[in-house]
Here is the input.
Amino acid sequence: MPAEHAHQRLLLVVQGLKKLFADEHFVNLLRAEGLDTLPKYLAERIDNLNGAPV
Here is the structure.
């Protein structure tokens, strides 16, 4: 199903972002470039990945 495929892709992206945001150097680079905010939906998804493998 297309919806399930899209959901799996989104989960993959969110897990990748969570891993990147755990890297202090990456976060500092984003801040230096003025890219230190995310759309609210993605930020909430990253915060709510309780127990998901990273």
Notes: Residues 29 and 35 are 8 Å apart (CA to CA). The first helix runs from residue 2 to 21.
